[in-house]
Amino acid sequence: MYKSFEIKNFRCFSELKIQNFERINLIVGKNNVGKTALLEALLIHSGGYDPQMFVKVNEPRGIIEYIRDRYAPSQIIRYLLESSFYKFNTQIPIEMIGEIKKGNQTLKHKLTFKSISDKTEIEKLNLTIYSQQIKATDPLISGFEQIFELSYEEDGKKGKIYLLITQEGKTIPSSSLPPPHFKAVFVSTRARSTELEAAIFSKLKLEDKNKIEQVLKFLNIIEPKLEKIEILTIGGVPILCGDIGIGKLLPLSLMGEGISRLTSFLLYIGTVAGGLVLIDEIENGFHYSVLKRVWEAIATAAREFDVQVFATTHSLECIAAAHQAFSKAENYDFKLYRLERIEGKIEAIEYDKQTLDSALKMDLEVR
């Protein structure tokens, strides 16, 4: 699990450091203060040594669809990469440093991402990497228009991987990439894919059918009538359906947005056992009256599958429900962080159990 995380020159953050993370962490704050950007930074950092994560992280925002018809392919990639830098300034490197607890060890993992602007160095890299690695496998590529460098330091190990941008808009890592240190998934607020959820359900069932029974048990916290979940193909599309005792299976979407969204959360938690789940605007689709039970389900699943959760919200009811749910649990493994601009700089204000309890009782603003 992440114990602390530090960001420099990423998105809206010139510098940010957050410490004392718990298993479940809720991020709040006003609009445009960096809640989603923090989740994106964690996703990039947990991706290991993959510089392409700085492009992939834009997919949930829908930016690619917006600019696809406005720019040439290479310009799109350049824009996406430059948008990762604070104020689009690629002259200052991005830094991400995470302290990750693994068993009895605490590992420090640092990533630095920068644009290569020196022409001599670009020509040298073009010559060595292109001639030695790319030309033989893809002769249609004539060279690289721009090069970014990802350097890493971890447990005494150091290295560099270059991200090569071609005129055709391709991104090519300069070497093969090791697998990520642990699994991570970003759950956005955009429309979900029923096919993807069905695929995740199938994967989880193949890995261990007991995991599906556990997911069903967690869902029963908010829908006690749900007896089982199956995949049906409707109109050629696989869809998750549930049995609530009415004599026929119903698509989960017909049971309401809340049950569908919670199912998605729990499936992801089961799939990335031992990893990280990042949920943007977690309250969407839930009536305030069920939020406490939603948190109970998420917390129980996260503990069972040993997953760390980071989520964002704008909802005071969501914050209060989380506090109530964790206060009644045996272990208050929850932490609230409010991102706030203080003298032009974004800082994280930490709320532990006692501080949050007092703030809520005194009706103080914590969002």
What would you say about this model in short?
34% of the residues lie in helices and 29% in strands.
What does this structure look like?
The chain contains eleven helices and 16 strands. It is an alpha+beta fold and 367 residues long. The strands form three sheets. The protein has a seven-stranded antiparallel β-sheet, with helices on one face. The protein has a six-stranded mixed β-sheet with strand order 9-13-14-3-15-16, with helices on both faces. The chain has a three-stranded antiparallel β-sheet with strand order 10-11-12. Strand 4 and strand 5 form a beta hairpin. Helix 9 packs across helix 10. It starts with a strand and ends in a 6-residue tail after the last helix. The model has no long low-confidence stretch (mean pLDDT 89).
Pick out its properties.
367 residues; alpha+beta; seven-stranded antiparallel beta sheet; six-stranded mixed beta sheet; 34% helix; globular
Strand percent estimate: 25-35%
Mean pLDDT: 89
The low-confidence parts are none
Largest sheet entry: 7 strands, antiparallel
- Please report the total strand number as a whole number: 16
- Strand arrangement within the widest β-sheet reads 2-1-4-5-6-7-8
Overall radius of gyration? 22 Å
What is the end-to-end distance? Answer: 25 Å
Summing up helix and strand content along with how strands pair, one would put the structural category as alpha+beta
Instruction: Name the overall outline.
Output: globular
Question: What does the secondary structure layout of this molecule look like, with pairings?
Answer:
Blueprint: E1 2-10, E2 13-19, E3 24-29, H1 35-46, H2 53-56, H3 63-67, H4 73-82, E4 94-102, E5 105-115, H5 119-134, E6 146-154, E7 157-165, E8 171-173, E9 184-187, H6 194-207, H7 209-219, E10 228-234, E11 237-243, E12 250-251, H8 257-271, E13 276-279, H9 291-304, E14 308-312, H10 316-328, E15 334-342, E16 345-351, H11 353-361
Parallel strand pairs: 3-14, 3-15, 9-13, 13-14
Antiparallel strand pairs: 1-2, 1-4, 4-5, 5-6, 6-7, 7-8, 10-11, 11-12, 15-16
